[in-house]
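User: Reviewer 2 asked us to show a designed sequence for the structure in our supplementary figure. I'm pasting the C-alpha cells here. Could you produce the per-position amino acids so we can include them in the response letter?
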C-alpha cells in the first residue's frame, strides 16, 4: 500500500468543501439555494483589474520570481502609506508578494517552526480560520487553539494563559478584523500583544486580510503601524478588498530579517505570483474607488440583515468590518441543527463547529446579491414564524 502522511489521515474535511457538497446536494434536489456559507463574494471584479490582467499577459511565458516586479511591490507600499496614515514599508527588504494570504499562512511554519525543538506550539484563537491549524500540523508542530469568548470581545489574550505553555510557543496568530465574528481591536491591543511576544521571542503573525473591509470609522489598524516591527509579520490579500479571490494575490510584510528568511524558503514552494496577476494587483492596490464601491455594497447587505435580525430577535456580534455576521441561535439552539434546518429551506450558513468551537452561533457571509439577501430573508422570516 502507498504510504500516506499521517497528518492527512487525521484531517477532518475542510469546512468549505463540506459546504460546497451540501450546496450541490440541495441544488440536485431541486431547491433554490441562497448561499451565505463561504466567503466568496459574487460582485463582479472591477473592469480595471480585468483589463490590467489581460494587458499583463506576456507574449512569452516564463517563471515569475518570489520577489515579484518592483512596480508591484511599490504599489503595495503606496497603499500601505495611504491606508495607514503614512506608514512606510521598504519594498525591497520588508515585503514579499504572495498568492493570496492562504498559501502564505499555510507555508509559514515550514520556515519558522522547529518540529523537534522545545518550542513547537502554535497559538491561535477559535472560532477562526482553519489554515492556522492545518499549516501547523503539516509542519510537524503542535496546535494550541484557545477559545475566544464574547465576554472579552473575541480578543486573544495570551497574558491570561499558562506561562509554562507559553514557554513552549513559537508562533502566535491574531486575526483582526476577525473571521468569523467581525470583532475588532485597537492599536493599544496590538502594541500589548506585540510586546508580550517580543519579551518571549514568539513570532507574532497578524492575518489582516479584512482590514480594508470596514463600514465605519475608525478604520481597523495594522501591526505595521506599531513602533517596532521586530518579530512580527502581517498578511494581506486582495481577495475580499478587490473581489480577486480567484486571482490569488496578496503580500506579507514586516520584520526585514523574517522577510529575508521567507525569501529563501518560498522559492521551494512554487508560489511566485504570475506577472499578469501582479499587474492586476498593482492596479487594484492603487485604486480606491472600486474598493469603496465594494464596501458600500456590503454595507447595504449588512444593514438589511441587521434590520431583519432586530425584527425577529436574533442576537449578533457588532459588525463594523469584514463581510460576516456572527449570529446567535434562538434560545442557544445547537448550531449544527439550526444550520441544517435553515438548509432545508434553501439558506446555507456556516455553523460554529465549522470554525472550531461548540458555540450556539452561525456565520452569515454577505455573499449573495442584495436582492437575493432580501429574498432569503423572506424565507428565514417565514421559518421563524412557523
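Assistant: Here is a per-position design you can include in the supplement:
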Amino acid at each position: 500500500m502507498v504510504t500516506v502522511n499521517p497528518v492527512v489521515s487525521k484531517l477532518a474535511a475542510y469546512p468549505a468543501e463540506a459546504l460546497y457538497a451540501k450546496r450541490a446536494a440541495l441544488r440536485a434536489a431541486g431547491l433554490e439555494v441562497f448561499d451565505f456559507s463561504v466567503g466568496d463574494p459574487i460582485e463582479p471584479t472591477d473592469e480595471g483589474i480585468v483589463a490590467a490582467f489581460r494587458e499583463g499577459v506576456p507574449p512569452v511565458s516564463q517563471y515569475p520570481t518570489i520577489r515579484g516586479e518592483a512596480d508591484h511591490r511599490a504599489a503595495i507600499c503606496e497603499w500601505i502609506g495611504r491606508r495607514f496614515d503614512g506608514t512606510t514599508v521598504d519594498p525591497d527588504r520588508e515585503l514579499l508578494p504572495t498568492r493570496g494570504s492562504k498559501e502564505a499562512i499555510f507555508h509559514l511554519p515550514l520556515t519558522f517552526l522547529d518540529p523537534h525543538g522545545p518550542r513547537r506550539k502554535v497559538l491561535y484563537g477559535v472560532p477562526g480560520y482553519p489554515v492556522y491549524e492545518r499549516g501547523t500540523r503539516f509542519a510537524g508542530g503542535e496546535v494550541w487553539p484557545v477559545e475566544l469568548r464574547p465576554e472579552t470581545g473575541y480578543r486573544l489574550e495570551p497574558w491570561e494563559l499558562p506561562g509554562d505553555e507559553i514557554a513552549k510557543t513559537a508562533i502566535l496568530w491574531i486575526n483582526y478584523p476577525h473571521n468569523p465574528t467581525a470583532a475588532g481591536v485597537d492599536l493599544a491591543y496590538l502594541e500589548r500583544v506585540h510586546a508580550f511576544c517580543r519579551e518571549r521571542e514568539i513570532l507574532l503573525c497578524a492575518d489582516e486580510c479584512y482590514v480594508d473591509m470596514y463600514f465605519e470609522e475608525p478604520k481597523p489598524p495594522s501591526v505595521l503601524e506599531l513602533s517596532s516591527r521586530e518579530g512580527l509579520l502581517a498578511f494581506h490579500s486582495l481577495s475580499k478588498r478587490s473581489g480577486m479571490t480567484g486571482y490569488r494575490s496578496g503580500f506579507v510584510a514586516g520584520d526585514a530579517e523574517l522577510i529575508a528568511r521567507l525569501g529563501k524558503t518560498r522559492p521551494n514552494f512554487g508560489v511566485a505570483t504570475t506577472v499578469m496577476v501582479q499587474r492586476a494587483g498593482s492596479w487594484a492596490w492603487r485604486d480606491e474607488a472600486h474598493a469603496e464601491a465594494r464596501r458600500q455594497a456590503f454595507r447595504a447587505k449588512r444593514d438589511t440583515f441587521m434590520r431583519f435580525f432586530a425584527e425577529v430577535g436574533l442576537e449578533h456580534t457588532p459588525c463594523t468590518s469584514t463581510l460576516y455576521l456572527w449570529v446567535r441561535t434562538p434560545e442557544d439552539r445547537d448550531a449544527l441543527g439550526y444550520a441544517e434546518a435553515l438548509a432545508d429551506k434553501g439558506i446555507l450558513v456556516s455553523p460554529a463547529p465549522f470554525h472550531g468551537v461548540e458555540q450556539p452561533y452561525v456565520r452569515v457571509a454577505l455573499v449573495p446579491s442584495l436582492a437575493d439577501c432580501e429574498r432569503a430573508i423572506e424565507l428565514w422570516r417565514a421559518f421563524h414564524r412557523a
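For the response letter, you might also mention the following. DSSP finds 14 helices and twelve strands in the chain. The domain at 60-287 is CATH 3.40.640.10 (Aspartate Aminotransferase; domain 2).
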